[in-house]
Amino acid sequence: MDEKGLPGRLPERDRPWVMRTYAGHSSAAATNALFRRNLAKGQTGLSVAFDLPTQTGYDPDHELAAGEVGRVGVPVAHLGDMRALFDGIPLAEMNTSMTINAPAMWLLALYATVGVEQGGERARLAGTTQNDIIKEYLSRGTHIFPPAASLRLTADVIAYTLREMPRWNPVNICSYHLQEAGATPVQEVAFALATAVAVLDTVRDAGQVPAERMGDVVQRISFFVNAGVRFVEEIAKMRAFGALWDEITRDRYGVADPRQRRFRYGVQVNSLGLTEAQPENNVQRIVLEMLGVTLSRDARARAVQLPAWNEALGLPRPWDQQWSLRMQQVLAYESDLLEYPDLFAGSHVMTALVDEIVAGARVELEKVLEMGGVVTAVETGYLKSALVASLAQRRRRMESGADVVVGVNRFTETEPSPLTAAGAQAIEQVDPAVEAQAASAVRAWRAGRDAGAVDAALARLRADAATATNLMPATLECVRAGVTTGEWAGALRQVFGEYRAPTGLAGAGTAGADGGLAAVRARVAATARELGSGRLRLLVGKPGLDGHSNGAEQIAVRARDAGFEVIYQGIRLTAGQIVAAAVEEDIDLVGLSVLSGSHLAAVPAVLDGLRAAGRGDLPVVVGGIIPAGDAAQLRDAGVARVFTPKDFALTGIVDELVTVIREANGLT
């Protein structure tokens, strides 16, 4: 029999999803070269990673940008950088995803301007701006403005693209980062849909979009999800997402066309689930996680980007990204997956699991809506506390061995890996000179502009921001005048102010996490008595622009449960602020968390500040994604301990913190 005639086959093979790798580092020119190589290897879309100064609205020469420029993405400070980023890449023929949120309007304006400069029509530009600010308050931490002002910017982008860029997805509701922050499948679905409701309500109520066009708004909203290693559960989660999205858009917004109600999503599989220990195991994790969002035809991702096997070690190299791209290509082109209809239609197991997630998510969503919606749930700390508590429970299961992580808490015996053998350069290195070059370049850009045009454009932006005027036209004027990323964000900071989100620690606890916690609690109390203080005091600090606070929060919660008094002021602190808090709060130990790769700049700045303040005796420990060579440098600089992702047992880490305090104070 001709295999194409086998029963159950589709008449035509499905088109593969858009294949991307998340890429960007060092400079616009270096990233452009990386994009070109990836496209030549068969990648079918681009996914741009911006560095933290760009994501948080700062120029490369700003104080807070120190050590962060070009580390986790590409710096884009003005129109010239965007031109260099896409030089020789025809944007009218590309599908580009940009992971940018608080300044999404600004980066979209830069992108659209370059597309038009290349000779393309703005209406032909296709791609996505992530533009989901709510999850920034809960997980990634790259927010700038308060929630209401941020949602206004999102609504303005949606209204503008509906008119001028109809192929563009103006917002990408992200459950990805919620899962990394601790969300269960039920919470991930519910909290992401609550965000989508807030966005759609804001658009509907702003009056910029006619009621009859809400279906057009809905069909341009996409989602960005996380796929963990429990791939059967992930398949069910995605089917539940689709069912609830169809229900909400039909019943709440009156969208009659089922094609407009289709749940459209892209995915990156779980980066924070990758391990530093036995990192070769990450390859099979990535494959399983990819299956969770591709096996089910009725809930298949429209775009997939995979992390690299070594992301828990540092910045992946081009070869590592190629390996991840090839995983997608083998599944799409060598396997027969795309030749069949949905494999799970009629499965009573899958149906029951989907129904369970739908029911739980509906209850949680109603709870958020009843308290006034997702903005209220952010401002009261409800969402953040729920995620911190869920992540604490997940950590407890891993520490107890109830959740097995191969190579970490079970099957830890291992042969030396040739991938990370001595002398092998397992990650990409960012030249420290990149930051100085970027700072010099942005100063030269400012010097070469028409200052009057810049001042006029920024004045218009501030004036429009004080009204209900759509801010895209003023933003486009800023682009053409040569305004920088920091100047655009700075003007809006003057009007909207800045926002510090709740830390979520108040309602979280893990007492009884393991049998060793009582012993650590006794050591904490005994050490406090020997020092003549009421309680040991730990300052948890997040220096620089790194907003990934999950690890810092979990250490804070466990240390508090062990009897420490914990001072945690949230993310995005200068070295001076951390030093001032350490002195004012009479701290016994400073713990710094840095996951962005800026540790060699951020940590010495705090050490120097403590010495200048007369507290050079105060012990400092550091946690983060820190290569062994960098860890040695930090210890030589005076850091007492360096913790990395392989140090997963939180109670053991807290016990070591007690040891550090005792050593620093000469206690046996």
UniProtKB/TrEMBL annotation:
Residues 535-664 form the B12-binding domain. Gene3D superfamilies: Cobalamin-binding domain, Methylmalonyl-CoA mutase. Its cofactor is adenosylcob(III)alamin. PROSITE patterns: B12_BINDING. It comes from the Bacteria. SUPFAM superfamilies: Cobalamin (vitamin B12)-binding domain (SSF52242), Cobalamin (vitamin B12)-dependent enzymes (SSF51703). Keywords: Cobalamin, Cobalt, Isomerase, Metal-binding. InterPro entries: Acid_CoA_mut_C, Cbl-dep_enz_cat, Cobalamin-bd, Cobalamin-bd_sf, MeMalonylCoA_mutase_a/b_cat, MMCoA_mutase_a_cat. Belongs to the methylmalonyl-CoA mutase family. Heterodimer of an alpha and a beta chain. This is Protein meaA.
